[in-house]
Design brief:
alpha/beta, 7 helices
């Protein structure tokens, strides 16, 4: 079974747009199609950004998170690829939980590693759209 690690922007988008692709990924996880994981850091960032930009949709986040395993924040350590300091804990958490995929909209920082699992210890980094278009979603 695929284990999807959801970055903060995926959580943000799912709460903001309940009919969008990010929400669909979480909905499919609820139905057991794949396991969903995120980190406390990602939850905190999504909550902060929703509170600033769309406070009226903040109540949608908690029901989504009820279906997602939230990992505690861990101390930083060496990162297998070049990333800004703020993104390293996200990658590390995805690797720590043995995620098969890291779903993120952060193309600026994660873009060079997207669809290049050989660079990231076997982890497939993709946008939600790329993931949903991939041929093997089982």
């Amino acid at each position: 079974m695929k284990r999807l690690f959801l970055d903060a922007n995926v959580l943000f988008t799912a709460a903001h747009n309940p009919k969008g692709k990010a929400a669909l990924v979480i909905e499919e996880g609820i139905h057991g199609r794949w396991a969903l994981v995120t980190s406390r850091l990602a939850v905190d960032e999504a909550t902060h950004n929703l509170r600033l930009k769309y406070p009226e949709v903040l109540p949608r986040l908690d029901p989504l998170l009820a279906t997602v395993r939230v990992l505690p924040h861990r101390a930083p350590r060496a990162c297998p690829v070049e990333l800004p300091a703020k993104d390293r804990p996200i990658l590390q958490a995805a690797l720590d939980c043995r995620a098969t995929h890291l779903l993120t909209g952060d193309i600026a920082h994660f873009g060079p590693y997207m669809n290049r699992p050989e660079l990231v210890d076997g982890l497939v980094i993709q946008t939600v759209g790329d993931f949903l278009r991939s041929p093997d979603l089982s």
